[in-house]
Design brief:
Blueprint lengths: L31 H17 L5 E5 L5 H15 L3 E5 H4 L1 H7 L11 H11 L8 H5 L16 H4 L24
Parallel strand pairs: 1-2
Helix pairs in contact: 1-2
C-alpha cells in the first residue's frame, strides 16, 4: 500500500452466512439478501466518505461465494473496484509452506486446528484429531463445487428451534461426493 493513500480498516463483521451450522443449535445466520444488504450499507458509507476502492478480507468459508457475488454486484452499483479474498487465499503460498498434511486451509484442518491451539487450546478436542485426519470429507472433482452441511459430517441433536418440526432429509454419507 502506498503511504500517501488513505486507508480505513473496519472492524470484522461477527455475522454472516452460517446456515450449514444450524444443525448444531445456537447458530445465528443471515440469509443472502440480508448479507448483501449489510455489505451494501457498508459500501455506501465508505463511498460517501470518499473512498473509491474496497478490499474485503473474509474469514468464514460460508461467506466466500455470497461475498464474491455481492462484490461484483456492488462494484457495478457503486462504480468502484471491489476485491474480495479470504485470509488463507491472501497468504496461500506462505500458509501452504507451513502445512504438512494439505496444501491449504480447510475447515477444522491442520491449519485451523493449529490456530485454535495457539489461541485457546481448551477449545480443541485433541483426542479427536487423529480420527478427523483419517476421515476427510469426500470432494467432488476439480472444477466442481458442492455445498455440505456439517450435519452430514457430525450430526447433532435437534436444537430448540427445530424440535417439533420435520427434520431435513439427510444425505447418505458416501465415499464419493
Amino acid at each position: 500500500m502506498a503511504d500517501d493513500l488513505p486507508v480505513a480498516v473496519l472492524p470484522p463483521l461477527w455475522l454472516g452466512l452460517s446456515e450449514h451450522h444450524l444443525p448444531f443449535g445456537g447458530t445465528i445466520t443471515l440469509d443472502h439478501a440480508t448479507f448483501q444488504a449489510v455489505l451494501r450499507c457498508i459500501v455506501r458509507s465508505i463511498v460517501a466518505d470518499g473512498f473509491r476502492k474496497l478490499l474485503i478480507v473474509n474469514g468464514h468459508g460460508g461467506n466466500i461465494d455470497p461475498l464474491a457475488v455481492a462484490g461484483r454486484e456492488l462494484a457495478v452499483e457503486f462504480g468502484i473496484p471491489i476485491v474480495t479474498t479470504t485470509w488463507p487465499q491472501a497468504a496461500a503460498a506462505a500458509i501452504g509452506g507451513i502445512l504438512t498434511t494439505q496444501p491449504g486451509i480447510q475447515h477444522a484442518c491442520e491449519g485451523e486446528t493449529a490456530l485454535w491451539l495457539a489461541l485457546d487450546a481448551t477449545q480443541v478436542r485433541t483426542d479427536r484429531i487423529e480420527a478427523a485426519l483419517s476421515n476427510p470429507p469426500p470432494n467432488p472433482p476439480a472444477g466442481f463445487h458442492r455445498f455440505y452441511s456439517f450435519e452430514e459430517r457430525a450430526p447433532a441433536p435437534a436444537s430448540a428451534a427445530t424440535r417439533g418440526r420435520r427434520p431435513p432429509r439427510r444425505a447418505r454419507r458416501s465415499s464419493r461426493w
